Amino acid sequence: MTRTHKAALALVALLPVLGACSSAGAANSEGSDGAIKLMNITAVNSPLQNYPDVKAGAEAAVKSINAKGGLNGKKIELTFCNTNSDPNQALACARKAVSQKVAAVVGYTDTFSSQALPVFEKAKIPAIGLMPRGNAIELNSAAAYPFEGGSAGSSVAAAAGLKGEGAKVVVSVAADVPSAVANADLVKKGAEAAGLKFGGSVKIPTSGVSDFAPYARQIKAMGGDGVMFNATVGQIQGVMKATQAVGMKVHYAQHATAFGVNEAKKTGAPAEGLLLVSAYQAYSDTSSEGIKAFNADMDAAGSSDPGLKRPTAINAWLSVYAVKVLAEGQGGAPAIKGDISSASLSDAMTKAKNVDLMGLATWTPKGSGPAEMPRVAHASYRFLVIKAGAVAPTDIAPVDIVKELG
Amino acid sequence: MTTFIQFALLGLGAGAAYTLLAQGLVLAYRGSGVLNFAQGAFALIGGFLFFELRQNQGLPLVPALLLAVAATAVLGGLVYDLIMRPLAKAAVIARVIATLGLMILIQNAAVLIWGANPQSVHSLLPTSTLSLGGVYVGIDRLIMFAIAAVLTAVLWAVNRFTTVGLALRAASDNPVAAASLGWSPTTFGRLTWLLSSAVAAVAGILIAPLSSLSAADMPILVVPVLAAALFGALKSFPITFLASVLIGVGQSLAGYYVHAQGVAESLPFLLIIAVLVLRGRGLPGRGHVNDMLPEVGSGRVRPLLVIPLVVIAAFLILRVFPIDLVDALTVTMAWALLLLSMTVLLGYAGQLSLAQFAVGGLAALLAGKLVNDAGLPFSAALILSVVLIVPVALLISLPALRTRGMDLAVISLGVCVAVTALVFTNGDLAGGAAGIPTGDRSFFGIDIDPLMDPSKYALFVFLVFVVCALVVANVRRGTAGRRLLAIRTNERAAASLGISVFAGKGFAFTLASVVAALGGVTLAFKDSALIFENYQPMSSLLVVAFAIVGGVGYLSGSILGATLATGSIGSWILMSIFDNPDPAWLGLVGGLGVVLLAVQNPNGLAGENLKLLHAIARRIRKSAPKPESADTLGRRVKPKPCPPTTLEVKGLTVRYGGVTAVSNVSLTVRPGEVLGLIGPNGAGKTSFIDAVTGFTAPAAGEIRLNGERMDRRPAHLRARAGIARSFQSLELFETSSVQENIFAACDDGSLRTYLTDLFHPRTPVLTPEAAAALDELDLTRHRDELVGSLSYGKRRLLAIARAVAQNPKVLLLDEPAAGLSGQEVEELRVVVRRLADEWGFAILVVEHDMSFVMQTCDHVTVLNFGEQIGYGTPEEIQADPAVVEAYLGQVAETAEEEPEPVPSKESR
User: Fold this and answer.
1) Which end of chain A is more exposed for a tag (fewer CB within 10 A), N or C?
2) Would you list the domain boundaries of chain A?
3) What subcellular compartments does it reside in (chain B) (predicted)?
């Protein structure tokens, strides 16, 4: 063996020791100067999930609040943990939150919430503003405090938007995985609630697909003129191009949380006119004071790129302000006088009702919603559209899915 | 009907895409012998380069196209020179794993350069639609199909009608022979990789507009493409084209007509697998060349080292390590179990199955159902799931009986794809989006719930690994391990020694499935719910990749390899040093690491580490004289004559397709007799022996041993009954020692050994017959030498000694004197006579050395064009005009010309 090999082996042998020391150190650390510790967890820059906007939204809110004196005279210390779209890393991030004794996890957005939420439940750490991505646990875990129904909610709402576009027959196009297929069932419910015909479900395998023409043909065979996607961006691009290539006139809808300006830019012309189902207004909707505040914070934090202003960013930004709102006492809950901790936040959330979140959402943390999303007491969805590469509002009336689902 | 035609036509686009990728794959394989898992990644590079030059830089179409294709081709050439050439002498699997690392590297490099979001690209083909009687098809799809067909035709024509094609075929079949004729394998390798990468680039440029340029999706297209390439036996361009189109059309039709979960995705793969399995054969043919395989460890366990290590590790896990490190250890140990299953399957038995992760996943699903639906406690569910997975794994292993090497790899990958599509993504079977709750985890009353205190669970998984590793070590050291190694090295030779290849493979798959099941269950149950939609075929590829990089033949290799898994110790170290490292950088470094490790250490890290440790230990220890081992070889034993046994063959006919190799041949070999079987090349002599010993199925005839019918028995049972043979091509276990080759012949074949060796492996002992065989052929002093280091003459003698060591009653020797010197031939003659006269064997000798035949044999049978044309004493045969004309030379011109005098039998 060469000397290089031996040196490499020695270094590899040393690394666990270094790592143990650094990790052990981190486990015992506390916030500097008694700061309020929050954590944001999401996946950034992985092929399966990519939410740099979530990180940007949370950071912008923290920066803004700290600039105005923080909460109860204390600064917020925000830690970020990247799950890398890996279930083991998602668990590691949850463990990190526990070891760092964070007061709350804010704006959690990740597919592997089933790894993290049980840990949060056991440690009694609330996940405030968790963005549901299709796992049932996100909508019924005691540690989950979503502001809206996530992809489940927008799946129900989509049909109303497609109806507003003139569609008569709704077809669901979903990736062939259980979470997406479950949302496809909700598309059907939404279609029925909106008085539209449901044409059927097209399922696309997650790998090995080189041509989407057959799936476009399936939509046509079902008579679909309105399509709601529960699919990856690549699958959406493929289907839209395939339907347009054969001259099919179809209205499309997609979750606004997974499709923003950057995705529209990468998709190009086929994305023009794509309806986005969103729990929040478009970042460009300057009629909303809440959106104005969001834009101001994001721009001040250096995140003015419209690609970073998807609803997921708004949700993460709002989740930090939710902590502020609880700390200050709103919605019938008294202000938190002592430490802002997971215990005091949880206690506040038990009492809070119909909390106004910057005019962008109404939130009852411990409220009960419909069977499909028990933790979501309020969920109103709006319809945005891709116009000239940007996300713009539409005139289609919002729909309250809690009422729709009964 | 219109709808049927419509969806069939819609499948042409995908069929064309698969063709373009598959033909490049076949081309690279034919030129270098490597199955390139990175073919889809090269397509991605070509597609992105074209997009960058055309849409971002604004270059005109043709220059952008040529530059993108040329750049990708150059990349392919560089890959060949920098990675494949250094690995030329390594195991084929190491080269394949290097391409896997390359795929990961390219995938993540693309993310870093062009971002994670898929990129929609414009088509460079017309996108209008053609309508024919209510059936619509895109013009671009038709053009793509035409391009794929033309490419296939060009490749076929070049292969068939040009000198380059001829040379390529030669190099593909026999690189050494081709090189001796002046056709450099390196040149062909480089050329084919250049062309293959260029074709991949064209594929990427044409496919991207149909879907998107996606770093996540395009590289994975290699999975269905492999099935098409394999259908064409990795050499036929037309059949590969046909298979690709069938897959594309099949998927399109299945997607519309079949609504059951996963059927559309898995059906084409399953159909092709069925064809490949039916096409395969039980034992490899004569022309089959065994691939180089990675080194294997000894399985020796040092209790004085292992016990303290286990105790210290337990203490550290329970008391010292922080929670995140403990979590990482759990993942590492669970993955180590999966990799340990590969040590048994690939390291020892040579079975390249890519289904182990699927086996582990199925076991986890079973355990989850038992806990959640049947209400069983975790410990009972764990044990039951491991037991229940065995028949499932054996079912998956059935293709292994008829296929081997890369065929088996792709088939098992196809099984993995099918299991993923049909089971893991089936919400009804696998718990849906919510998954299956794992419930309370306790092991026979001891709480090991990992949720808040993962240390007990980590210790549990660690101890499971230790127990499994000890069992696997026992197998390695025992007879079962020797059988597996024999099968791995040379299935034909193993069967000739009475080793049931079927039983050996079945054992390997069974044990491997148990270990993989334990890995799968412990990995899945560390979480609160089992979510199966994350189980992807890629994970099965990673199991093999990590096993190879770690050292698939070594127990410690499984731990080393497991540190590369995401979430394991390796990830933990990186996360501890770098705060929130970019996953694309992690992937890039990981892929590069796999490539470099495969190139630098083709036998894996464990082998290198052990050599280093041994070197250190040797320096520390004062060298003491090695104690002379107990004389297990015994003193020279006068052989006990075997029971008199007669071999009777009646009316034997062997056909290969339309060719009759042996036609109605009958002969009898009596105890103590040496019968010669001679004839010109192609007369059917080796086919005769193959048919008698069970390596070829006869079309007609009977084979009897002392009146008992043998012709319906498989090869290994005929060997057990007393028919032993040597091979023309020797078929020795090249990487083993002389003694180990002989040990393989001493095996009594008992199936109970597979069970007892798990707990108490027997120390190998040379039987008196084996010791006497070594003495007889003057090989005793070479017993510790590796076969590869022996002279050719000694290797020939070893082949005979191994056959004799089986304690047979009948001995069939196929050209035992080939390549020997005059002196060696004379010594061999004396040995063969002694084997007949003193040992009492009935011996049939096939030989071309007429002097040897005439001086050694009691009688001679002559074959010509498969027919028997003469039988008699050597003198009678020499005088037979028909024999003389057919074999020995022209008939004597005059009656006065007399044959040369032959020494009488008494003078031998």
Assistant:
1) C
2) 3-149+287-375, 152-278+382-405
3) Cell membrane
Contact assessment for residue B8 and residue B184, using Cβ atoms and an 8 Å cutoff: no
A248–B contact, CB cutoff 8 A: no
CB within 8 Å of chain B, chain A residues 318-337: none
- Which of B432, B577, B600 is the closest to A178 by Cβ? B432
CATH code for the structural domain at A3-149+287-375: 3.40.50.2300
Q: Which of A142-146, A231-235, B113-117, B871-875 has the lowest mean pLDDT?
A: B113-117
CB contact under 8 Å between A209 and B536, yes or no, is no
pTM for the predicted model, two decimal places: 0.87
Q: What is the pLDDT of residues B393-448, one digit of tens each?
A: 888 777 766 777 777 887 888 888 888 888 888 888 888 777 888 988 999 989 99
pLDDT of residue B711: 87
Between B899 and A350, the higher pLDDT residue = A350
What ipTM was reported for this prediction?
0.84
Select from B519, B483, B484 the least CA-distant residue to B393: B519
Distance separating alpha carbons of residues B806 and B749, to the nearest angstrom? 11
Domains A3-149+287-375 and A152-278+382-405 share a fold: yes
Question: Within a 13 Å sphere around the CA of A333, how many CA atoms are in the beta-carbon half?
Answer: 30
Q: In this model, does residue B87 exceed pLDDT 70? A: yes
Q: How far is B194 from chain A (nearest CA, A)?
A: 24
The answer to whether the CB atoms of A99 and B212 lie below 8 A apart is no
Chain B contact present for A396, CB below 8 A: no
Residue B630 touches partner A, C-beta closer than 8 Å = no
Chain B residues with CB under 8 Å of A48 CB are 216
Contact indicator for B415, B262 with CB cutoff of 8 Å? no
Domains in chain B, CATH or no CATH each: 2-276 (1.10.3470), 303-536 (no CATH), 647-734+809-907 (3.40.50.300)
B-chain residues within 8 Å CB-CB of A118? 451, 527-529
Length of chain B in residues, anyone? 908
* Structural class in CATH, domain A152-278+382-405: alpha beta
- Closest CA–CA distance from residue A222 to any residue of chain B (Å): 11
CA separation (Å) from B294 to B161, B410, B460, B554, B622? 38, 19, 31, 10, 31
